[in-house]
Structure formats: structure tokens, C-alpha cells
Amino acid sequence: MSQENMSSYRRFPPEMLTESQARKELEALAQELAFHDALYYQKDAPTLSDAEYDALRQRNEAIEKLFPHLVLKDSPGLKVGAKAAEGFAKVTHLMPMLSLDNAFNSEDIQKFIERVCRFLNLPLTQQISLVAEPKIDGLSCSLVYEDGFLVSAATRGDGYVGEDITENIKTISSIPTLLSGDQGKQAQGQTLEVRGEIYMSKKEFEILNKARLEKGDQPFANPRNAAAGSVRQLDPKVTASRPLGFFAYGFGRFEDRDITSHHQRLALLRAWGFPVNPLIKTCATTAQLVAFHDELERKRAALDYDIDGSVFKVDNLAWEKRLGTVARSPRYAVAAKFPPEQGSTKLADIQIQVGRTGVLTPVAVLEPLTVGGVVVSRATLHNRDEIARKDVRIGDTVLVQRAGDVIPQVVKVVNPEAPNRAGPYVFPDHCPACGSKAAKEEGEVAVRCLAGLICPAQAALRVRHFVSKGAFDIEGFGAKNVDLFFEKGVIKTPVDIFTFESRNAGFEVPLEKWEGWGSKSAQKLFNAVNAKRRIGLDRFIYALGIRQIGQTTAKTLAKNYLSYDNWFVKMQEASAGGVGNPAYEALIEIDGIGSDMAEDLMYFFSEEHNIEFLQSLVGSQIQVEDMAVKDTSGSPISGKVVVFTGTLETLSRAEAKSQAETLGAKVSGSVSKKTDYVIVGADAGSKAKKAQELGVQVLEEQEWISLIKHLPQ
Length: 713
Ligand code: IVH
Prior knowledge:
By secondary structure, the chain is α+β, with helices and mostly antiparallel strands. The chain is built from 25 helices and 26 strands. Bound molecules: 2-(butylsulfanyl)adenosine.
């Protein structure tokens, strides 16, 4: 449902709605919920998160409570019970449905066999018989038979509890509802589980998707999703209209003493009327397994169902039992995966995305192609160096690879010798989101936007940092609220935090009218902001979120530059003058400031947007206090190395550290011969012990406090 269709009253809390607004809102909610229900239940393609969907339902409920006489005849609230009854019941598997360990090459296969031999105490060279099967790319299913009758069917779920899909499974004609043949008697007198994979053939998948496109429905991404979407249908009639196949590959619970091998199991399943994959083979050697796997890969494209590898299972059931399982995978079986699937297509364009941390990521816009049953139209090009290394140019034919669920990637250019190729791709040196400079630091691969604070792509994350504990520490400005204010568009840069209150009165819907807010909570937030209009230089520098400038470095800078104005001027000088400039040289002279940190500071100050930002904030919206310097020369702990350990009673660790540093001590995290004092709190562990061993002076918390209490703080 588009944003435009959304009721214009959506922003109002239910209590604020007039009767006629409530009526319209209930109608809009009923429509929207029906729309999203259809997406979820019928199309298997929801566009709302569960939380967003629940919020709509809760809002409907709240309005209905306030205006009971307006409840619609077909209210979505009335359907809740019905939905739950219609929804899938849970089924606990009699035996857990396990997953398989993966092998990616012949070495891994060999290692698997050796592990099996070692576990069974057999010589590593022993040839053991294994059943090799195609690994069907569908969804696994457990079928329960009682006295030979199909009584229930369930999805894998979390391996222990799945969803009851009995009625839908009964529409799959190849699954027997009664175990047939003479062998059927082996199923008498017991409750057994047959395990296998439900899939949709490639042909049926194409037909289904074509029909969906014609109807204006979203196509399924691949046959696996189509099969899963078809099985998870509340209406079995829909499942019946989607031709699904099934391959049985084993059992959950089942007892039959006459059966001693996995291949006998498969024969029995076949005799009972189950489809068992015709390509399954018993192999005696590793070489045969590898040959099976290679041949299967060659056949892969021609098969009418998707497979993603082979499964090898120890044939001897006595061994299978002894091998058992580790964690959630059996030791007696392994899945050998095919290498990633590839295809080539034309690179129509290269787009640059800016992530929340400012990294510019190039994305290949492709002429759509199908790779392993999935339509791919975008792929990652990773970063600037990768584009240069592969010399990828717009208009090239490129090889695209999909590896499992991983984002498709551009592997290489197929036609590097083609005539009339476009010129080499020029990676932007400006951020497409905010127009600021973008650059790559030495030793890094990523090109980043240098204007974190004002760049819309990064601003939310930066503002979260700006208001966090070690920075402006504004109460009530948690991550959730920051995100909300961004979403509503009331905050775009940190300056907006401080102008929020004065702008609020002019908003169409001011903060106190938002859902969940009132005049008290709004005022509380504004007061919290106002309380922080003065900030120490160290905290301010830290708040800017300049790369590599954490709390300690910010403090070091503040101690050296003392006032904001001085720091600002010196950083601008250093940035403009670069290496060799006295301001730059003075910066890297500071103990604790490396040249890489200096480089990050210079980047920050070389970006005009950042300067403008500082100018619009400091002085008018906030005051940055000078750094108070203490004369610590008379302090008995000046220059001493101290270590805190254990839980202190009267001080937080952060406060104790800051106090010690103010008095000229160096606080270290570990005890060594250089340590002067170790201050021990409750439950002090190995550090206290180490101090004793090294003969370092150990102080109780109170002793430490009396040592420093007479000093000016
Ligand atoms: S045996 C304990 N055989 O692969 C062994 N699984 O990662 C359990 N699968 O959830 C499975 N074809 O959905 C087995 N021939 C085959 C299979 C197969 C596909 C799937 C199955 C399972 C997953 C294991």
C-alpha cells in the first residue's frame, strides 16, 4: 500500500481522533490490513515487518476500543481469531529433522570419509559403501504414517517443531496416502516418519511465474520459494493448483529389523509408492563419489528440478547408528555443494550507494539474467579497487556469480578485447548522497564520504553517536528516538537537535501530539537538550565522530589545544598547510597522536560542509568550555602507572579512571613491572594476584581514596 493511500490521520494518537476521523481511519486500516494479509498469506511476499503489521493491528484495536459503535462488520479485529484457527498448527517431530555438514571439494569429501573411519576405528584406507544422492533444492517435509495411513505432514520448522501442512500435502498426487504393495505390511502396527523434499519443477515454475506476471502478481524468485509459498497456503485449493513434486530420501522414526542398509530403505520407500530420485547410486570408493558429484553437476542444467549438490550417506545402518549425530548434523552423512552458479550479461550502469558508515559501494546494474533459477539485475562490485582491478566498464559483458544466499557478484569482464568499449570507469570523488568529498585512506579499500555529520546517508548513525553517553549525553535521545526523529524528518543534522524546540511550535503536528508523546514528555526532552548546551572540549571533539578519534584521543587533543577556538584554528591551518606546516607538525608531535589519526583530522577539516556545520553549531547553539588544566606537579600520583581491578564501591570505573588521569596518573589495563599501584575492589581476580607476585603495591579502595582526597581535583 503506498504512502499516499495511508489515512492522513495516521499520525494522530487514537485519543485525539474525532468521530468522523476515527470512522475514516478504521476503514483505511481495514483496507490496509486486508491488503497486507493477502501479501503475506496468498503471495508469500509480505512488504511489512511483523512489528509494523502488529502496530497496524494494535492501532485498529485501540480505535475500536475508544469508538465501539464504529466497529466495522468485517473488522480486521474479528478476523484475528479466525486467522489463528486457520493458521498452521504446530507439530512436534517424533525424531528431530537434522541438517547436514557441507563439503566443498574432493578433499572435504575425503576428510569426511576419514572421520567416519576414525570414529568407527577402521583403517583410514578402508573402502566403505556410501549412498550418493542428489541434494534437492526444495523444502524438507516429514510425513507421519500410522498403520500405513498418512495421518499428518509437517515442515521442518526449527528441526524439532514444524508447521502442520497435512491438508496441503494431501493435494500432492505423488505422495501416497496409503502405503501400497505387499511391503505395506511392514508399516503395520507402527507410527513412522518418511522424510523427503518437496519441490517445484523448473517447467512448472516458469508457467506459474508467467501467469503471475500476467495477473500483475509479484513473481517468485526461484522454484524453491515457489514451492515453499505453495505449501504454506492456508487454502489447500491454492496448493492443489500448484503442481508440486516430492522425492523421499529417508526416515525419521521407523523400525524394521530386516533392513540393514540405507539403499534397502530407499528400495522400501519405492515399493511403498514414493518417488525416489532415479539418479541415486551406491558408491564404494571416494573416487566414485567424486565422479558421481562431477557427473551430477554436468547433468544439473538439464534436470527439470533444482539441485544444489550431492548428499553422501553411510550405507551400513549399524554404522549409521554408531556414528550418531554431533550438534545438529549427523556424522554419517555430508552434503557436497556445487560451486557457485554463473552467467553473463551486459553491465548497463554502475550506481554508487552510500552506507550508514559513509562507505561508497559500487553496484552493477545489469540487464536481467537468470543465474541458477534466480533473476539477477543488480550485483556488487565491492569497491573502487575491484572495479579498477577487473577493469569493469559500463556497457561490458560481465560474468555474474551467485553463491548460495550471498549477494550476486561481478566476477570479470567477458569481452575485454571488444572494440568500442567505453573508457575506464571513473570512481566518483564526491559523495552522491551529500556532494561532499569522498576519499580512500591509505591502507584502506573503502572510499568514504568525508562529511559524516551532514551526509543524509550517515547522519542517523552519527547523531546517535553525537548524543551518546561519552559525547553530549542527552537524556531521552536514545537510538530509538533518534531514528524516529530522522524518519519524521525533524532532525537531519546534529544542529537540528538544538533548534528542535524552537521549530516544534511551527510543525503541523508538534512533538507533543505524536503518538506516545505528550506535552510533559516533549518538554522533558527539550529540557534535556537545553541542559547540554555547554560541553567540555574533550567531549565535543569526541562527539564529532571523526574516524579514529575516540574518547582518549579526544581528551589528549583537548588537553593540548585547551580551547575550542584554538583547536579549530590550528586544525584548519594544519589541514590547509599539510605535512611540514608548523600546525601539522605540532599535531603529530603530541604523544598519542599518530599520523593516521592526524590524517583523519585533516580529512574532516578539509571538507567545507564540516566547517559550515561547526560554524552553525558552536557559539550560536552551544558553548564549548575550555579544558581546565590542573597543575599535577605536586600530586603524589603524577606520572604513576595505576591499574584498577575488581568492583569499586564508591566510584564507577570510568570515574576512577578520569580522576586518576586528572591527577596526572596513567591508567593501564594490565599489571606489569612498570605498574606503581594496583587498586583492588571487590572480587578482584588475577590482576591482584599478579601484583603480589611482581611486588607491586596493592591499595584497597579506601586507601586509594585517602591518598588522593587531599589533592585538588
Ligand atoms: S538427508 C540428517 N538427503 O538438505 C540428514 N537431505 O542440509 C537429513 N536435502 O533439510 C537430510 N536433498 O531438506 C537429505 N537427498 C537428500 C536431500 C536432503 C535435499 C535437504 C533437506 C535437509 C537439507 C540438509
